[in-house]
Design a protein that fits this description.
Length: about 190
């Protein structure tokens, strides 16, 4: 069965964005792009909330075509063009959207149906509100977190309204020269 893995940058104090959605504190560089790119390249499905999907859709389809495109821009743009996209939202239909499925109701049933399909793990990119909804429905199977060396003090937290403990098992860690630390967890269902 496929797993839903939340891929998120996070501050040391647990925020995934500033109070107004700011992400200018996130550290990324070629070392991280190379590391993350290897795992993402294996994926065949990306899951987004509305805001993150619109950001991605406004940039990645043509990012690799720019004369100033980096190797990462070219590679990720190609991947974005071929990956199956699933978007959680209520204000949009998937008519005319290439390789994109919109889920606007029956979230639990729809996500469980995707989990039953053949393929690789589904990466949930960013999308704090979508992540919160999936956590509440116990649909996230793992967290691929990139802890940035900053304390924001306020913002949008990754975890809200958690009613029961969520036990995790650490799979891997990686320290980047930028000071960012990767923590790759899977739910410990034992």
């Amino acid at each position: 069965m496929r797993k839903i893995i939340s891929f998120m940058h996070i501050s040391l104090d647990g925020f995934v964005a500033g109070p107004n959605g700011e992400m200018d504190w996130i550290k990324v560089d070629e070392e991280m792009f190379d590391y993350v790119g290897k795992r993402i390249a294996e994926g065949d499905t990306a899951l987004y909330g509305r805001v993150t999907y619109q950001m991605m859709e406004n940039y990645w389809p043509t990012a690799g075509d720019s004369p100033t495109a980096t190797r990462h821009d070219i590679e990720h743009s190609k991947w974005y063009g071929k990956v199956h996209k699933v978007v959680l939202l209520t204000t949009m239909k998937d008519e005319g959207l290439a390789n994109t499925k919109v889920i606007s109701d029956n979230l639990s049933d729809s996500i469980n149906e995707i989990k039953q399909q053949p393929g690789e793990d589904v990466l949930l990119f960013g999308s704090p509100r979508a992540t919160h909804s999936l956590i509440q429905l116990n649909l996230i199977d793992g967290y691929w977190l990139f802890v940035n060396p900053i304390i924001l003090g306020q913002g949008i937290p990754l975890f809200v309204d958690i009613k029961d403990k969520i036990k995790l098992k650490l799979l891997t860690t990686h320290q980047f020269t930028s000071g960012v630390t990767e923590l790759n967890y899977i739910l410990d269902r034992e």
